[in-house]
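User: Modeling request: complex.
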Amino acid sequence: MSERVHKNSSYLNAKSTCGTQTRVKDVSPTSGMCPICIRDCPFLCEVGLSTFRGREALYPEPLQFGYSTASALKDFRLDWSDFNILSSLFKVEGIEADSDVALFENASVESTVAGIPVKVPVLTGAFGSTEVARLNWDGLAVGCALSGVIITIGENVCGMDRESKITNGKVTYSKEMERRIEAFRKFWDGKYGDVVVQTNVEDQRLGVDVYAISKLNVNIIERKWGQGAKAIGGEVRIRDLDKALMLKKRGYIVIPDPEDKTVQQAFKDGVFKSFERHSRVGMPTERAFLEDIDWLRNQGAKHVILKTGAYRPSAVAFTMKLASEAGIEAVTFDGAGGGTGMSPVPMMDEMSTPTVYLEAQVLKCAEILKKKGRHIPDVIMAGGFIKESQMLKAIAMSNFGDGPHVKAVLMGRSPLLAVMKSSYFLELAENRKLPRKFAERYGVTPDKFFISAPDLRTEYGEKFASIPWEAVGLYTYLNERIRVGLMQFLAGARKWKLDLLDRTDLVALTERAAKTTGIKLVEEAEADAIERILD
Ligand code: SF4
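Assistant: Request completed. Predicted assembly structure:
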């Protein structure tokens, strides 16, 4: 624990997220400042950067916006590494107890979430109007379609689209929205995965839901109450004055005011290089929410889900209550620690409930609803998931004996990483600049270094040529790494189906993990087994 405390305090006044550093490493544990702060210091620590750039210092490095993702770096004292998965030997479930059949390759990691089957228990998103999503969309969408998972188009896509047609305050056409949906559908098998269109306050005002359902035949609409990275609305940077003006006219909050002549001059003079576009926060009320969900269904939404952030426990309980009453099919709870485009760094680090604590609260609510015989929405957990072990633990923890409440996890940063990595290495390959070791090990052309390329070429034939390599990269990550890794864990637990995993497959490694989640400590798990079997 002492190591963890030390680690956090050293980030107080310097964070790679903001590109800040201190002059010396042995900083004050209380303030994060160098013990001797000197006048002639050329370093920019947090306070130093804030001295020059003010609010810009609240954000991940502005220059990286559009080409990066960001998350918290704080150690929340409890995460998925505080649990281990128990392996089994004598009992085989979900498959014939035959060593020639019970191979890990035969394990099923399919799930069904909000009525939609997925090949891997994953949703990706929500990728909204933030630049990094727009730039990497084809790789994300096609990669998800190939992998049989759900992709979520996030908030503000229509509102930010210069080519949107807005009539009487309602959107009737958005080139960007149509492009995003079509990219997925081109390689969608029509069965596994689908596209979700997320709607926040501005989207609802613009009628994005009705447009998506009626004109674009979108099956799943998601209402948004928040995200784990911050408890305020979505934010993006705008590097173009005309676009900032257009967004203000469309009703968005743009800071500083692009219509102010002084601001315009400062922008032209290079005093600042980007505007902030903010979204409004929702003010959900019980009656309005229930009416809204009924209304959405009447508009033709086949599936309705809700995305919320990591608000206080009473808000978690109220969310589950309303989602249950409205018959919502799934709720995504996004834990603190995750992030994508542009969230204030202090909010990512210091605000809201981290993922494992949040899941423990959600599960408590789900179990109360179960006891009362009420509808329980599928739970989707988000917030820092990148690996199969984390998702397996999240799912297993949620199964109290009647099947898991958590049907899938939502991932944002890691799919983007896979797509950006693919894109950059393709560029390096084209310019014959691949890192020497990589080239020696894996080859210099994408058909060699993407290990899934031969299989996909066989499966898709001529169509393979129109699959972006970035999508091959995402497919390789989701299908060849996550899916296979999950199958191995399932076979190790001797459970060949994902929904057979339950809480007894986990042990807690710390008192806090056990206390928070009710998962037994390693030394307490099956405590009576030794005497029972041997006495
Ligand atoms: S300004 Fe002071 S606290 Fe900041 S890095 Fe320099 S010496 Fe350290």
